[in-house]
Amino acid sequence: TDYFSLPFKSKKMDLVYSIDVIERGEKHDKFLLEQIIKIVKNKGKILFDYHTSERKNITRQIPKEIGTYSKKEINELVKNFPLKKINSIGTGYLPQLRNWRNFEYKILNTILKKIKLPSARILLIYSIIDTKAKQINLS
């Protein structure tokens, strides 16, 4: 399915999640969010993640073709949408420089999180607010 023309009726979904697609540039990402918002009910939820530029600056592990956002940039991206932020969760604190064993990853990832190393990704959870009260402006 082409995610630029989702095959769902407007305002029918309670929840939509989108992983690994908010990474192709502001124009693409705004358009995709607009498509998602069209199909989610008022007070419904959307979940999406993004690669953090804070982490890319440290590890240089993200390929050039994958876009990243800082916290400020992601806030700018969503500011004109009818969204209320519920939560943001950092994930992936241990750089994938090699194939870690499961127990190694769990221990080291926990330590790096506690010392506040920037996470590789942020999972965002938003609620849709009344779209009739606020028009979407993508200009």
Relevant terms:
4-stranded mixed β-sheet; alpha+beta; 25% strand; 139 residues
C-alpha Rg, in Å?
A: 16 Å
Q: How does the overall form come out from the CA principal axes?
A: elongated
Largest sheet: 4 strands, mixed
Widest β-sheet, arrangement of strands: 1-2-4-3
Q: SSE order, as H and E?
A: EHEHHEHE
Number of helices: 4
- Count of distinct strands: 4
The helicity comes to 25-40%
Structural class: alpha+beta
Mean pLDDT: 84
What is the rounded distance between the termini? Answer: 27 Å
**Which regions contain 5 or more consecutive residues with pLDDT less than 50?**
none
Strand content: 25-35%
Can you walk me through this structure?
The protein starts with 12 loop residues before the first strand and ends in an 11-residue tail after the last strand. Strands 1-2-4-3 form a 4-stranded mixed sheet. The longest helix is centred in the first third of the chain and has 14 residues, at 26-39. The radius of gyration is 16 Å and the shape is elongated. With 139 residues, the protein is an alpha+beta fold. α1 (26-39) links the parallel β1 (13-18) and β2 (40-51). It has helices at residues 26-39, 53-59, 71-78, 102-114; strands at 13-18, 40-51, 83-91, 121-128.
Concise account of the structure shown:
This protein is α+β, with helices and mostly antiparallel strands and about 140 residues long. It has helices at about 25-40, 55-60, 70-80, 100-115; strands at about 15-20, 40-50, 85-90, 120-130.
